[in-house]
Design goal:
seven-stranded antiparallel beta sheet, 106 residues, 1 helix, mainly beta, single chain
Length: 106
């Protein structure tokens, strides 16, 4: 599983409201090459709402990125790289990788 520490921001143009952290936050993540991966966003427990157009530091867990997949995309996963969050073809926001860990223990 790939675990990414990142700064993220949801954009106003494709979201009609701010996001409650009480709900599961599971957009698709595009690190490059238009490959989308499912993942869960975890935020600090004191944050109840993710306001649009505001940066937050989060942890993203991507359980669908196993060893074979990671081998093919590892050049896209680097500190400082930008990625995009999607719902289908709509870009919901963007992020910057602060740190990451690829964990082979399942």
């Amino acid at each position: 599983m790939l675990i990414v520490e990142a700064q993220i921001m949801f954009n106003k143009q494709n979201l009609s409201h701010d996001l409650s952290t009480n709900n599961i936050l599971r957009p698709a993540f595009n690190f490059g090459r238009d490959l989308l991966f499912s993942g869960n966003i975890s935020v600090d427990q004191n944050i109840k709402i993710l306001e649009r157009n505001k940066w937050y530091e989060v942890i993203i867990e991507l359980p669908t990125i196993q060893e074979e997949v990671y081998y093919h995309i590892q050049d896209l996963i680097n500190i400082g790289n930008t990625f995009y969050m999607h719902r289908a073809s709509k870009v919901l926001g963007e992020g910057i990788i602060i740190n990451f860990l690829f964990d082979t223990d399942d």
